[in-house]
Amino acid sequence: MTTHSRPPVTPLRRPPVRQTTLVRSDVDHTFEVFVRSIGVWWPVQPFSAGQDRVRDVTVEQRAGGRVYETWQDGTVVEWGTLLVWQPPHRLTMTWTSTPVPTEVELAFTALGPALTRVAVEHRGWESLSEAQLSEDCALPGGYTGGGYGTGWTTVLARFTAAAEAPRSQPGGWR
After folding, report:
1. How are the residues of the chain apportioned to helix, strand and coil, as percentages rounded to the nearest 5?
2. Is residue 122 part of a domain?
3. Domain that holds residue 94
4. N or C, where is the chain less crowded by C-beta within 10 Å?
5. What DSSP string describes 130-171?
6. Rounded distance, CA 60 to CA 9, Å?
């Protein structure tokens, strides 16, 4: 009797969504605008649960800190928890806006005294079903249709504009 050995099963690999932008500002300011002013520049329509009801978005600036939106009526909707907090160079958080939590890492790299590269990597898609991958996103198509890539491009464009604005200029990006 012969036994047939099967090769090990390799889990389906779903590549991370990666986006990068260059910000004409120093790394400290760039990081600060991202975490302290996120409620001003983040495009809550369509990239939030509350949309036009969102009053603010908060990043609790420490490992284990929460990232969440607060609505006009006081409702709080969690976006995730900070897993890594290394200001002004890196933060990693769970992303609970997907049916199964994924992970978002942002890396801030000084390329010069007034130039910073910001790289986003949104990963952990292996845990989502095919239906969740194609449907779950503020934009049509979800992960499989490119909605997350387009979404992060939009978010980074708004962020870049806010970080490059004159420092005396108030927000008002909504």
Report:
1. 25, 30, 45
2. yes
3. 17-164
4. N
5. HHHHHH-SSSTTTTTTTHHHHHHHHHHHHHHHHHHS-TTS--
6. 40
Note whether residue 144 is domain-resident: yes
Maximum distance among all Cα pairs of the chain, rounded to whole angstroms: 81
Report CA torsion sign: 133, 137, 140, 145.
negative
CATH number assigned to the domain comprising residue 79? 3.30.530.20
Residue 95 lies inside a defined structural domain of this protein: yes
> pLDDT of the chain along its 174 residues, tens only?
555 666 665 455 789 999 999 999 999 999 999 999 999 999 999 999 999 999 999 999 999 999 999 999 999 999 999 999 999 999 999 999 888 999 999 999 999 999 999 999 999 999 988 888 887 678 888 888 888 999 999 999 999 999 999 876 554 444
Q: What is the pTM of this model?
A: 0.87
Token pair for 48? 């939030």
- Specify if 170 maps to a domain: no
